[in-house]
Every structure is written in structure tokens, then in C-alpha cells.
Amino acid sequence: PPPLPLPSAMLTSRGPALCTALRRAAPGGLAAFHSSARRCRAARVAVVLSGCGVYDGTEIHEASAVLVHLSRGGAEVQMYAPDVPQMHVIDHSKGQPAEAESRNVLVESARIARGKITSLAKLTTADHDAVIFPGGFGAAKNLSTFAVDGKDCKVNREVERVLKDFHKAGKPIGLCCISPVLAAKVLSGAEVTVGHEEEEGGKWPYAGTAGAIKELGAKHCVKEVTISFPAHVDTKNKVVTTPAFMCETALHHIFDGIGAMVKNVLKLTGK
């Protein structure tokens, strides 16, 4: 790098050594050194999983997209899952229940987390600036009973606690795919999106979820999954949602929509 523009008064016999030390500490010069000192610390984000596999746990592509975009945004991530049995186990090669099997949500979620996962009971707002829930049927089967009970569903006790605690603390909550039903159930008056409210020839196969969200007392906002309009930001409640796989579309659109959700969550942290 070129010599640093140091004042002549500093160019004593120790000047060259000082210049070398400063260049090593800040390769971009003094300006870079000072800007790095002013940089805010990374946002600390909790990601809550619900198992491993779209039909009985977390949708793996959605979880991966969340983690990639959080990494790109410079966030520090810790993954959590409730230490409870799954509702049931699905043989994903057949799309049918595996009647003789039972699995644990935390143990299965550890597959996605590469083993670095903690029980949801230990998640606190004091340790994190935001929380994100990927989708997958696990959100409607393991984090709640929405898949069975619809608007009359119950939410896992720890999931409900986390949502209420982050909301009370004014810290952002991100949800995608089917998981916005959790916020609709727990946070009165929240605004969320699961995409469109009509199936439109099969493009939105789970469009009926929007009606259930309204029955839960939340406001549903119609949104596209594409990059143009991929996420809804409820600024009052600091809830950010995106449709993801509620729509039958190309994978890169899902990835980009989740990226918009993550970007807005990180923006709301103020980090």
C-alpha cells in the first residue's frame, strides 16, 4: 500500500516503524482503521427449526436459504428446536406416514444445524437481536397443531413464549412459508403474508391458509414470491414474512424472497 499521509511531526526516527505497524493494523490506511473501529457489532439471530424434511419438519431449502442470507448479512447465528416428539414421521420417498417410526424434533433439526443446536427452552431475548422461523410442515405439526386444528390450533409453549418475548422486547421476528400462522395465532393484530388467497390453477396450492390467518384475527397481505414483492414488513409489530414454498415456482425465486425477508429482519435490528 502507498505510504500513510502522516504529519511531518511524526516522522521521527521511529516514524518508519510506526508506519509499518499502522499499515499492518489497517491495510486500507488510517481511514479503514477508524471506520472499522466505528463498525457496529453483528446482529445475533436465533433460527428456530421444527425437524428435518418438508412434510414432517423444517423445509431444508428454506432453512439453507435463511442461513446463507444471514451469513451474507454478517449475522451471528444460533439454531434452536423444541425437545419434543414429532407429530409423526413421513417417508418422503412415498409421501406417506411411517407408522412404526417416532423421532425427536431437536434430534432431527440437528441434521440441518450440523449438530450445533440448542433446546428452544434456552432461547432468550437477552442473547439475540432477532428470531427467524423457516417453514415446512413441521411449523404446522411440531411447533403448533395448525395442520390438524386450523384456526383452533395450539402453539408449542416454548414457541409461544419466544414469539411473545421478542414482540414485547421490540425485536424483529421473521417467518416464511407456513410459519406465519404462528405469529397470526400468538400476536394479536399482526400483519403477515403467505402469498395469494386463491389457488390460481395450482400455483398457490395452500391459498386456504390465508383464510385461516384472517380467522385467527391477523391481517393477511397478498404478496408475490418473486424479488419484486417478496416480503411483507409489519413495521408496528416488527414481523417480516414471505411466502416461499407456499407458491409453486422456481427455486431461485424462493431463495430471493427469503433473502428479502432476512434483509428486512436485519435492518430492523438496527445493527
Radius of gyration, taken over Cα atoms and rounded to an integer in Å: 22 Å
Helix content: 25-40%
What is the strand tally? 11
Uncertain regions spanning at least 5 consecutive residues: 1-16, 18-23, 26-38
Tally of helical segments: 10
What is the CATH first-level class name? Alpha Beta
Count up the domains. 1
Outline: globular
Please indicate the percent range of residues in DSSP E strands (runs of 2 or more).
Answer: 5-15%
SSE string: HHEHEEEHEEHHHEHEHEEEH
Q: State the CATH architecture.
A: 3-Layer(aba) Sandwich
Strand order of the largest sheet: 5-2-1-6-7-11-10
What would the CATH topology be? Rossmann fold
CATH superfamily: Class I glutamine amidotransferase (GATase) domain
Taking all residues together, what is the mean pLDDT?
A: 89
Largest sheet: 7 strands, mixed
Compute the separation of the termini in Å.
31 Å
Strand-pairing-aware structural class: alpha/beta
Q: Would you kindly provide a written description of the structure presented here, covering whatever features stand out?
A:
The protein is 35% helix and 14% strand. With 271 residues, it is of the alpha/beta class. It has a single domain (44-269), classed as Rossmann fold, CATH 3.40.50. The strands form three sheets. A seven-stranded mixed beta sheet has the order 5-2-1-6-7-11-10. It has a two-stranded antiparallel sheet with strand order 3-4. It has a two-stranded parallel sheet with strand order 8-9. Strand 8 (191-192), helix 9 and strand 9 form a beta-alpha-beta unit. Residues 1-16, 18-23 and 26-38 have low confidence and may be disordered. It comes from Panurus biarmicus (Bearded tit). Its main location: mitochondrion. It is found in: Mitochondrion. One of its GO terms (cellular component) is mitochondrion.
